[in-house]
């Protein structure tokens, strides 16, 4: 017969187990601390900003974004983000989705082993370098000759650059969505004698639509959060009425407004022209959070379906 | 179809079937689709090649002119003699800091979430939170770093310094390390854990002796990819106050810079006419260095992933 | 003895199992409707020499044990005593809870978050599920061999030495001794003694399973639980493992889950038959213990008609 003591095990080992569990748990909860800190830093700074400029809602609509003159027309920078983001998606969706469809439904195994790494290489290109590319190639060699804009740095150039950056994300997430469609659906379609193009357009893409929407939304979120290309090639100019813009105008995104406030042309340490970066940062954080959450919900829908 | 379509008079049934099976009706829609898709792929590849090609091309005058002195010179006011040494210094220590910090914290968090955490609401909150953090724009991590690491922790970090930058970048890539490590740990077959528990191993012993060794290649791949990402980020550097001008004596706790910052700054400087080596050449050269670094790390990660997948399948 | 108007209850394990097959005294047992010739042809034959000592020390005393996953009762009300140095087989159709029951004996069900065990299981008199009991310690004394052989991706030597190393054995000479003894005990030594450094995964399926047995043995348990250990193996490997079980039963108490009735008949001393019943409202199946008796009796003259039907192959 045994006693309970025999089955209690080693006290030292039990302590070690508890210690490791606590350490790992601590590491995991650190992530929550990071989120809270981000929120705190942004909210605190935004509050300081609002107090500093004697907050009135009308301040948001004075035309033009000139922080040093205390003109904070949010519409300027939000529109800048939207326009550049839209241009970017006009590039990213056809190239990204097209690549994904080709890799998922058409390409042979050999082609895949060549093309996929190349897409991964594109994904690894740092955004500064795409910014360089936008300044030295996209602007002088494409946009200027073709469209003859007033400034060589404008929202079209920056948008195209951001689009290039987002292609790999769109491609990879779209491919995930297409691969998640079960093979049995493909077999069913081919089995009744459908052509490949019919299967792809009428069966697979509709089946993958949740995942494709998720890919789109998450790509938009990345485009809006992109900073370097927008800062380098967007052509900072806060002037101009909010309604009269074309993609060939220079523009400012929320992200570029933040970098300008910190270290760029508006840099004055402290004071509202600096503190505004917290305000804009909070706005940007919330927008990307909402977009990412919606995207995640669509991803979950895919998971539940299959 | 074979039964319903009449054949020509006098044809046998098999002749009719043969004719139908071999008829070459043009699949116009299919061809259009295929061409369109091929165009997108080829264009994408083309964009990549033009991009890299332009960086290389613009960098050549610096490579042939200055040569390796570019790597050891400090930042100068003349593009023909400028170097990126302070940037290399900064990027190196940022990389070291990222690896040193993300391995214990990132892998530790992943171990907790995959091996120890019960599937309850709190765990779900942790997971959702990590996924959200992975999607936060890098410039916001820069703001966080500015206030916390440059501001609050100034006594430890020395203010706007490499240490602050390393901490900021580590926080930026931490969610990615956690997510990739979780995936690697999840791929460990349950039978391996069963075997460990079956001989009376504790949870930590099973994790340490069986799960981690098996998941190590995947975890390593994630860390290498995160390192590549951290080296290429510029937006946080701007927020942290990285220097773009003279920096003769880089140190760990003083003003700092890193390669992406130099690329950013030099790209914006106009080229003077008549210059053989202008700032855009210097920017391209710095970009070339960065590309080589980042792409080799990516290649290393892919190599690691493939090599260890083979030993798995061999089992 | 039994009330003729009540349906027969599953035999309680505090009835001492008899050595000789008894004729059933309950009038409510259905007479098998197959002819004697037919039932003999499909009925597994218990090996001779499976003699059961009714007074052997009780290792596991299970009293009204149920396992629930959340609010789903997977298996209910099992009461039985498992005795020392015997091979006890759990048989029954799939889904009847035999593996669930087995995993209760070494607290492997702890790893399923929603699993809950009701009733009591004592091991040498100690309540296995007492909060003070350390489940890791339990698994050092009650080892387990799994359905799919799962050697560690290490060398053969390191596989077997793993358990002793955990227990603190460090000296090379001692480890060598334990490894050899365990591999001999698993009837694997002669085949691998020249390649102890090669990977455990380089062995054949049957050898891997014997390696897993050696690994379990090296820890020095007094009980070995086996969850369908031969189901992934070919017949020759299966036979070798069955021989092994008979050899080592003198040193260990073995509980084996098997869906192969013939194997249970060949190898075990005591057999427990589980089956499922469908809950008419929820359409969920709950397993329960039908009968627990010496193997010789289970396969010739079981007490319960359901057992009779199962062992003659008429269902399951």
Structural write-up:
The complex is a heterotrimer of chains A (306), B (315) and C (316). Chain A has eleven helices and two strands, in the order αββαααααααααα. Chain A is mostly helical and 306 residues long. Chain A is 74% helix and 1% strand. Chain A has two domains: 49 residues; 247 residues, MetI-like fold, CATH 1.10.3720. In chain A, α10 packs antiparallel against α11. The mean pLDDT of chain A is 86. Chain B has 315 residues and is mainly alpha-helical. Chain B has a single domain, classed as Orthogonal Bundle (MetI-like fold), CATH 1.10.3720.10. Chain B contains 13 helices and no strands. The longest helix of chain B has 38 residues. The relative contact order of chain B is 0.13. Chain C is an alpha/beta fold and 316 residues long. Chain C has one domain: P-loop containing nucleotide triphosphate hydrolases (Rossmann fold, 3-Layer(aba) Sandwich), CATH 3.40.50.300. Chain C is 30% helix and 23% strand. Chain C contains eleven helices and ten strands. In chain C, β4 and β5 form a beta hairpin. In chain C, α5 crosses α7 and α7 runs parallel beside α8. Chains in contact: A-B, A-C, B-C. At the B-C interface, α9 and α10 of B face α3, β6, α4 and α7 of C.
Number of helices of chain B: 13
Please summarize the sheet with the most strands of chain B: none
Residues in helix, % of chain B: over 70%
- Output mean pLDDT of chain C: 84
Distance between the termini of chain C: 31 Å
Distance between the termini of chain B: 49 Å
Shape of chain B: flat
Shape of chain C: globular
Most extensive interface, chain pair and sizes: A-B, 84 and 85 residues
Fraction of residues in β-strands of chain B = under 5%
CATH domain fold name of chain C: Rossmann fold
User: Would you state the CATH class of chain B?
Assistant: Mainly Alpha
Low confidence ranges of chain B? none
Number of self-contained structural domains of chain B: 1
Please, what is the oligomeric state? heterotrimer
Q: What is the total number of structural domains of chain C?
A: 1
What is the CA-based Rg of chain C, rounded? 20 Å
Number of DSSP strands of chain B?
Answer: 0
What is the helix/strand order of chain B?
Answer: HHHHHHHHHHHHH
Uncertain runs of chain C: 1-34
């Amino acid at each position: 017969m045994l006693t309970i003591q025999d089955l209690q095990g080693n006290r030292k080992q039990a302590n070690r187990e508890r210690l490791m569990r606590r350490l790992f748990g601590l590491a995991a909860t650190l992530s929550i601390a990071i989120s809270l800190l981000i929120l705190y830093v942004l909210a605190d700074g935004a509050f300081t900003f609002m107090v500093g400029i004697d907050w009135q809602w009308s301040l948001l609509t004075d035309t033009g974004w000139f922080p040093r003159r205390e003109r904070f027309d949010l519409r300027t920078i939000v529109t800048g983000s939207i326009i550049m983001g839209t241009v970017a998606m006009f590039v990213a969706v056809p190239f990204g989705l097209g690549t994904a469809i080709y890799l998922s439904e058409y390409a042979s195994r050999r082609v895949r082993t060549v093309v996929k790494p190349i897409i991964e290489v594109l994904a690894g290109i740092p955004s500064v370098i795409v910014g360089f590319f936008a300044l030295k190639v996209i602007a002088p060699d494409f946009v200027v000759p073709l469209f003859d804009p007033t400034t060589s740095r404008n929202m079209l150039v920056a948008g195209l650059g951001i689009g290039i950056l987002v292609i790999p994300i769109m491609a990879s997430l779209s491919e995930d969505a297409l691969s998640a469609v079960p093979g049995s659906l493909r077999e069913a379609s081919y089995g009744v004698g459908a052509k490949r193009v019919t299967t792809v357009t009428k069966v697979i893409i509709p089946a993958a639509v949740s995942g494709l929407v998720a890919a789109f939304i998450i790509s938009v979120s990345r485009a809006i959060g992109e900073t370097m290309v927008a800062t380098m090639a967007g052509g900072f100019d806060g002037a101009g009425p909010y309604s009269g813009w074309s993609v060939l105008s220079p523009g400012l995104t929320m992200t570029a407004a933040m970098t300008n406030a910190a270290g760029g042309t508006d840099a004055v340490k402290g004071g509202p022209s600096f503190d505004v970066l917290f305000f804009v940062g909070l706005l940007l954080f919330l927008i990307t959070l909402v977009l990412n959450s919606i995207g995640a919900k669509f991803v979950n829908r895919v998971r539940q379906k299959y | 179809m074979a039964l319903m379509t009449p054949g020509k008079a006098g044809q046998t049934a098999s002749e009719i079937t043969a004719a139908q099976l071999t008829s070459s009706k043009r699949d116009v829609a299919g061809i259009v689709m295929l061409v369109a898709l091929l165009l997108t792929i080829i264009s994408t590849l083309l964009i990549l090649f033009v991009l890299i090609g332009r960086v290389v091309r613009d960098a050549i005058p610096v490579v042939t002119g200055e040569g390796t002195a570019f790597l050891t010179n400090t930042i100068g006011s003349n593009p023909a003699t400028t170097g990126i040494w302070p940037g290399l210094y900064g990027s190196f220590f940022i990389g070291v800091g990222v690896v040193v910090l993300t391995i214990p914290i990132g892998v530790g968090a992943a171990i907790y979430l995959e091996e120890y955490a019960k599937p309850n609401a709190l765990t779900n909150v942790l997971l959702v939170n990590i996924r959200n953090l992975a999607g936060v724009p890098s410039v916001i991590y820069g703001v966080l770093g500015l206030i916390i690491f440059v501001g609050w922790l100034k006594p430890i970090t020395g203010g706007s310094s490499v240490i602050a930058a390393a901490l900021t970048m580590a926080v930026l890539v931490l969610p990615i390390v956690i997510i990739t490590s979780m995936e690697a740990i999840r791929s460990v077959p349950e039978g391996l854990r069963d075997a460990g528990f079956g001989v009376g191993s504790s949870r930590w012993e099973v994790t340490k002796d069986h799960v981690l060794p098996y998941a190590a290649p995947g975890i390593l791949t994630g860390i290498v990819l995160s390192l590549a990402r951290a080296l290429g980020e510029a937006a946080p550097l701007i927020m942290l106050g990285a220097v773009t001008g003279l920096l003769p004596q880089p140190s760990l706790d003083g003003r700092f810079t890193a390669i992406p910052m130099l690329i950013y700054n030099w790209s914006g400087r106009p080229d003077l006419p008549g210059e053989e080596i202008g700032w855009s050449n210097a920017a391209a050269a710095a970009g070339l260095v960065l590309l080589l670094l980042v792409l080799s790390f990516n290649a290393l990660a892919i190599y690691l992933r493939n090599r260890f997948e083979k030993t798995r399948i061999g089992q | 003895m039994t009330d003729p108007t009540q349906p027969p209850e599953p035999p309680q394990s505090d009835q001492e199992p008899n050595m000789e097959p008894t004729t059933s005294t309950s009038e409510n047992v259905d007479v098998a409707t197959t002819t004697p010739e037919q039932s003999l042809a499909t009925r597994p034959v218990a090996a001779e020499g499976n003699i059961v000592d009714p007074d052997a020390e009780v290792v596991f005393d299970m009293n009204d044990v149920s396992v629930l996953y959340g609010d789903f009762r997977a298996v209910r009300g099992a009461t039985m005593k498992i005795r020392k140095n015997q091979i006890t087989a759990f048989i029954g159709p799939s889904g009847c809870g035999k593996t669930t029951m087995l995993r209760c004996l070494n607290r492997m069900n702890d790893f399923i978050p929603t699993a809950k065990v009701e009733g009591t299981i004592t091991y040498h008199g100690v309540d296995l599920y007492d909060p003070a009991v350390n489940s890791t310690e339990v698994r050092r004394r009650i080892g387990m061999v799994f359905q799919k052989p799962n050697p560690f991706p290490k060398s053969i030597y390191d596989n077997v030495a793993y358990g002793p190393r955990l227990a603190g054995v460090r000296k090379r000479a001692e480890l060598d001794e334990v490894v050899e003894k365990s591999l001999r005990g698993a009837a694997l030594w002669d085949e691998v003694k020249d390649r102890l450094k090669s990977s455990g995964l380089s062995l054949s399926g049957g050898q891997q399973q014997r390696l897993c047995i050696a690994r379990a043995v090296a820890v020095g348990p007094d009980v070995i639980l086996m969850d369908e250990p031969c189901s992934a193996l070919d017949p020759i490997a299966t036979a070798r493992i069955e021989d092994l079980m008979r050899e080592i039963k003198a040193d260990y108490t073995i509980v084996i889950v098997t869906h192969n009735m013939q194997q249970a008949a060949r190898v075990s001393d005591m057999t427990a038959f589980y089956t499922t019943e469908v809950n008419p409202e929820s359409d969920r199946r709950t397993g329960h213990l039908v009968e627990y008796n010496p193997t010789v009796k289970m396969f010739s003259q079981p007490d319960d008609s359901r057992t009779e039907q199962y062992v003659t192959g008429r269902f399951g």
